[in-house]
Amino acid sequence: MSNHFEKPDHARDDWTIDQGWSDYTAEDHSVWDLLYKRQIDVLPGRAAPEFMDGLKALDLGKGGIPEFETMSDELESLTGWRVVAVPGLVPDEVFFDHLANRRFPAGQFIRKRDQLDYLQEPDVFHDVFGHVPMLTNPIFADYMEAYGKGGLRSLNYAALKNLAALYWYTVEFGLIRTDQGLRIYGAGIVSSKTESIFALEDPSPNRIGFELERLMQTDYRIDDFQQTYFVIDSYDQLFQATVETDFAPIYERLQGKFDYRPEDVLERDEVITKGTQAYAKAGGRFAEAD
Ligand code: HBI
Ligand code: FE
């Protein structure tokens, strides 16, 4: 599995482009403001404290789409990361190379007002609001770099899908246990109003303790709420699992194996809540094998 698409003419070799901040229209900025307000209404008490701290540290609520250079100067002073603009999805090896060098590639465009809830490609709201606050956390920032480096190494194995599942169930849709209860930190959740509530409060999905090899074999849905969320105890757990694990033996063992369906609960799982799966629709990738 590798993604191939044409690099637009205006993109550089590393797929970066100018953000072109002064070209955003008043409507673009007001879509950001609207999305920002919707999230701020639901995130306190649901988002991880580290995410809320990051929003504040970067002043992402000052109004309008942030300017990447200014934001990156602040972010760099905190954890050494910068944000670079890209046209949308970039090839895996390009994506990994940016992360491995502590650059987060963020979509330059913003969604239209009539598609607030669902998009095919990551836009500036998902990427900046969803991902960048967690990059102010030193341990999470190290994890993202380790993931990028692991990604570059994985290109020689049939393991990309396994690694993509790790990203999916942590960076995009991860939950964390705190003394106050479960909190969301995944960018795909914190940038979505409905999933911010669903991920924590709906009886439908499973919530299962993080186990690296288990989650690297678990399929996921990209077009719907998750049927399983994986819960970490700390960002350090995530970082240690990634940096101290030599992925090579895991890849040899897995051989690209991808055995678990999104809704499966296994004997070995630490089940935090077992879902009713009431939300799950029929069908999906494994439907024929059922
Ligand atoms: N490109 N811009 C962008 N954003 C992503 O999240 C992204 C990507 N290219 C590849 C990719 N993600 C995934 O295939 C990896 O997480 C495995
Ligand atoms: Fe994302």
* Uncertain residue ranges: 282-290
How many separate helices?
12
Q: Which molecules are bound in this entry?
A: 7,8-dihydrobiopterin, fe (iii) ion
- The portion of residues assigned to helices is 40-55%
Shape: globular
Q: Tell me about the biggest sheet? A: 5 strands, mixed
Compute the separation of the termini in Å.
24 Å
CATH domain class: Mainly Alpha
Strand order of the largest sheet: 4-3-6-5-7
Query: What do we call the CATH homologous superfamily?
Result: Aromatic amino acid hydroxylase
Integer-rounded radius of gyration: 18 Å
Mean pLDDT level: 91
Total strands: the figure is 7
Proper CATH architecture: Orthogonal Bundle
Characterization of the model:
With 290 residues, the protein is an alpha/beta fold. The protein has one domain (21-281): Orthogonal Bundle (Phenylalanine Hydroxylase), CATH 1.10.800. Helices cover 41% and strands 10% of the residues. It has helices at 26-42, 49-57, 68-79, 92-100, 124-131, 138-154, 160-172, 187-190, 193-201, 212-215, 235-243, 247-254; strands at residues 82-86, 103-107, 175-178, 181-184, 206-209, 228-232, 271-273. It has a five-stranded mixed sheet. A two-stranded parallel sheet has the order 1-2. Helix 4 (92-100) links the parallel strand 1 (82-86) and strand 2 (103-107). Helix 6 runs antiparallel to helix 7 and helix 6 (138-154) packs parallel to helix 11 (235-243). It is globular, with a radius of gyration of 18 Å. The model is unreliable at 282-290 (pLDDT under 50). The structure holds 7,8-dihydrobiopterin and fe (iii) ion. The site of 7,8-dihydrobiopterin has 11 residues, from helix 4 and helix 7.
